Amino acid sequence: MNIKKDLLSINKYSRPGEKLKSVKGIVVHWVANPNTYAKANRDFFENRKYGEMGYGSAHYIIDLNGDIIQCIPLSEIAYHVGADSYKEEAIKKLGNYPNNTTIGIECTHIDWDGKMTEETYNSLVELCKDLCLTYKLNPLTDLYRHYDITGKDCHKWFVDNLDEWEKFKNKVRDKMINNNKEIQKNIIYKNIVNFDFEGEKFGVPGFLKEGISYVQVRGLLDRLGYIVEWDNESKTVIIKKE
Ligand SMILES: [Zn+2]
User: Fold this and answer.
1) How far is the CA of 103 from the centre of ligand 1 (A)?
2) 107 and 10 in one domain?
3) Are residues 159 and 237 in the same domain?
4) What are 12-68's pLDDT values in tens digits?
5) For residue 29, how far is its CA from the centre of ligand 1 (angstroms)?
6) Last residue in a domain, options 136, 153, 182
7) Residue 202 CA, ligand 1 centroid: distance in Å
8) CA–CA separation, 138 vs 188, rounded Å?
9) CA-CA distance, 213 to 206, in Å (whole number)?
């Protein structure tokens, strides 16, 4: 998987430079423009800075040959799922403004049916696998089509072919397990500690041992609205209020 950084200039319309609050999900899009290259789509986002083409961007764009362009740093928000209203389920999991809590990936495609080349598809699987491992996300519940959040017909191929979407998520999960047997088996399948925080119910990776709940710090604090970072030099978990 080849990721090239080609960051947008900071501007009001496509790269506001605001901090991403946390990462609770990954959103898959299609560019809705058949047979265009990732670079052309990236430049389209860049040219939004002039203010004549509305708002919109994504963190990544996957090319027809599988190469990936990163347009926005993972510490910042992209404008990829903004809408007037959101599905209730999405708000429950991602908050009132899902751009604050998600990473957006645009996929190029050959035709109007949205079907991706094998190369694009494989890179999408790889990228989602890496992001799920980094942010401790469960591919079966934390990968979204744009459609799942706003109802928009995007990623069209996965909206029209629900079985393909399910297959895709399972592929990401299988890759994660192959990559990191020990941890991922625990995180994804078995060991979840359930919380009820002022009525909001959620599970966090962890386990119960001799009457003590051991839970993943990031998983819990993320859900409570804190930003969790790791300082490798001092081996310290840094917790910040949003
Ligand atoms: Zn979309």
Assistant:
1) 12
2) yes
3) no
4) 999 999 999 999 999 999 999 999 999 999 999 999 999 999 999 999 999 999 999
5) 4
6) 182
7) 26
8) 6
9) 7
Select from 135, 122, 162 the least CA-distant residue to 20: 135
Q: What span, in angstroms and rounded, lies between the C-alpha atoms of 190 and 205?
A: 8
Q: What is the pLDDT of residues 165-216, one digit of tens each?
A: 999 999 998 888 776 655 555 555 456 788 888 887 777 878 777 788 888 8
**All residues with CB under 5 Å from ion ligand 1:** 29, 146, 154
Model pTM score = 0.76
Distance 201 CA to ligand 1 centre (A): 28
**CB neighbourhood size of 122 (10 A):** 15
The residue segments making up the domain with residue 215 are 191-241
